[in-house]
Amino acid sequence: MFRSIRTAVVTALCIGFSAHFNPAAAQDRRVPSSPAELRLSYAPIVQRVQPAVVNVYAAKVVQNRNPLLDDPIFRRFFGVPGQQPEQMQRSLGSGVIVDASGLVVTNVHVIEGADQVKVSLSDKREFEAEILLKDTRTDLAVLRLKDTKEKFPTLDFTNSDELLVGDVVLAIGNPFGVGQTVTHGIISALARTQVGITDYQFFIQTDAAINPGNSGGALVDMAGKLAGINTAIYSRSGGSQGIGFAIPANMVRVVVASAKSGGKAVKRPWLGARLQAVTPEIAESLGLRSPTGALVASVVSNGPAAKAGLKSSDLITGIDGQTVDDPNAFDYRFATRPLGGSAQIDVQRSGKPLKLTVALETAPDTGRNELVVTARSPFQGAKVSTITPAVADELHLDADTEGVVITDLGGDSAAANVGFQKGDIILAVNNQKISRTGDLEKAAGERPRIWRITLVRGGQQINVTLGG
């Protein structure tokens, strides 16, 4: 099964290799030609990059809750104790220093929910760190070391689009907490899009040994540059089985740039169109030799795609000269383009090729009005947002979706205990239409005897009735 490197299960593996062969770039690579070359060492690369790879320790305080407290008979006869005992939960991962001022990139799942984060350098010094930015869509987080003015060793980014299947790479991290460890292997595949780990499905696959604790560690090329951030493995046992995944450096670069600019969220280009995969049946109907590309299902009026002339049923086959095999590949390519410029998109329309120029701009986000519901109600503890184009893009909703969406839930909140989920769209409460977060906040404060709630989950409308 798939596991993040902290052993959380993720979805399925796409079998087979996807490599875009570049003859010109391949001429620089060659196999060893003599026994002397086989005795060559990776030590100079390791010595140069190892100081920039760190260990990340995260801790959070949780309450030990006795399951008997959920039994109403037990509570009736024995009462409810006032203060539950607390316990410190700790997680371990790795990170990479990407700026000399002390910026560290790691995985979100390493520091998720942490009350305290510490970073240990290769020379054993420890620093407390603050979380500058968390981007759950990529599972990347950026930390800053506290109370320090020194210059730290860093890793430079490589252009991950130039990597080839067969290139030798090194994986550096802290597996199982044994200490900094280096393993080597090759890039087994590129553009893995059916892994199911993050929103942006476009991973480097490697057979370099990666294990729990390696999350957030460095995948390094033979120039000593950062090729990717190790994030997940395919494993039936929890240990390495030769199939690991890394987030490409070009995506990491975008997240780090947002943190450097002081942003609390990553700003990415918005296409303003919904794409779907090309099935064999669709390919046959379009007269395609193979089911590749990204089919335009709908276009948002006045969005960048509409202004560029993109239409429903267009087939996107490339962007800025790079082939697009499916919607996930397009999403990654488009998301790593710099804001403010434009991208050239290759399109097939009614069998004829077209080139369209799309402006790289962010989705409108005015009127989000995000808040946490505090009134005693089934919604208490839920973070909600009015659906804007930016929110719809983040949550993969149709751009014309209206209402209020749950964007986050407190772990032990009333909303979580009732059964609400992130992504639920609240349409009505007690026959009152919910269009903005203010509407929900008002409805939550009324405290009726019966709650009648209409919501949409996974495209299905659900009617719920709860006691007050």
From TrEMBL:
Location of this chain's protein in the cell: Periplasm
GO biological process, one term: proteolysis
InterPro entries: PDZ, PDZ_6, PDZ_sf, Pept_S1C_Do, Peptidase_S1_PA, Peptidase_S1C
Keyword Nucleotide-binding carried by entry: no
The keyword Protease belongs to this UniProt entry's keyword annotation: yes
Residues of the PDZ domain: 253-351
Keyword terms, alphabetized: Hydrolase, Periplasm, Protease, Repeat, Serine protease, Signal
Sample GO molecular function, one term: peptidase activity
Superkingdom, natural source: Bacteria
Signal peptide annotation: 1-26
SMART domains: PDZ
PROSITE patterns from the UniProt entry: PDZ (PS50106)
Family the entry assigns: Belongs to the peptidase S1C family.
Name assigned to this protein: Do/DeqQ family serine protease
